[in-house]
User: Fold this.
Amino acid sequence: MSDLIEGLDRALSDIPNTTLGVAVSGGGDSVALLHMLAARGGGLRAVTVDHGLRDESADEAAQVASLCEDLGIPHQVLKWRDWDKSGNLQDAARKARLRLISAWAAKESITHVAMGHTLDDQAETMLLRLARGSGVDGLSGMAAQRVDGPLTWVRPLLHARRDELRAYLIKNGAGWIDDPSNDDPKYDRVKARQAFATLAGLGITPDGLVATANRMQDARMALEAATQALADACLLITDAGEVRLEIATFNAAPDELRFRLLSATLQWISGALYRPRFDSLRGVLSRIDDKNGQTLHGCVIRSHSGNIIVRREVSKVERPCPLNDVWDHRWVLTERGDEPAKTIAALGEGGLRECKNWRDTGHAREVLLASPAVWNKGQLVAAPLAGMGDGWAIELKYGKKGLHKSLITR
Assistant:
């Protein structure tokens, strides 16, 4: 058991409980993590997402709340009730869980959230990604830490086996909840888990796949460093948030680096969680000289004056949001004028017509249509990027360095 604790302490060596939250489902992995973190000292806070997908979910969340009360750990249950019954349920639930927990962490001033993924989870992830034909990034597995804006997701139990954690709980007289879906073969992850019994005859084991993931992580870091160097050599971000890639330098780079840089650019502009498909990226680059431009991942991609220009697609921008929120994943108010206002939203055609001097900004019409503006009940108050500031200022939340930081996935 000492190896379990030592591994967790190494993973969290610079993260105190006072800035740490833990996601607890009630299953054996997350409950073991909760007990281990509670033993580190005070300041820890816990959260449970009740997806409402099973009749037992509310009772299970209540059991976690009771456990946290016994351990003296503040706990909150977050409920997900807005699934529209379309698409992949597991993927929708995962996205909702991350969104709800991120909002909770921000409210609680938590900078790190720990999750109970294990070595077995890592191996299952590797097997599923092998089946999908993943490249270096996919085969590097789940990262021990993943930065998502102001929040860092931490997996301090990737060294631990599932059975070891249950043995730890039994030794400490602690119980846990077994989710029946963990044994349902209709789910790919369960199929992967069951496949290891057969694959062992070929020498394919969880430990071997995790060792491969670790080697792939080293390869990924080398590729990320090379992509950073390419970005430094050919990438420019304008004040309006568009990205320009100098074509000659960009095209001289190996395809892998070009795909990585363009993919990161598209994600940074659109706020998308996932990369575009490889075939889609390759198709865009093969048609980059198309005068009409192309759309992908919520962005418009054009070739102009020796540059590849990537802009936000106006039809894909986020809905209006309150003045204090981040709009369209990137934009925040930094200065406020005297006029009353309610929301931030895209400038659009109607707003641009009110900006008489927009051409003086040097920004293209297309980029300004998708740019942030300040509104009050349907009336334009200010459009700082289109030359109509009137005391208001809007900037990229993480500045122009945000894209460069996004090139690093761990």
Notes: The chain has three domains: 2-211, 232-314+402-406, 318-398. The chain has 15 helices and 17 strands. The first strand starts at residue 20 and ends at 23.
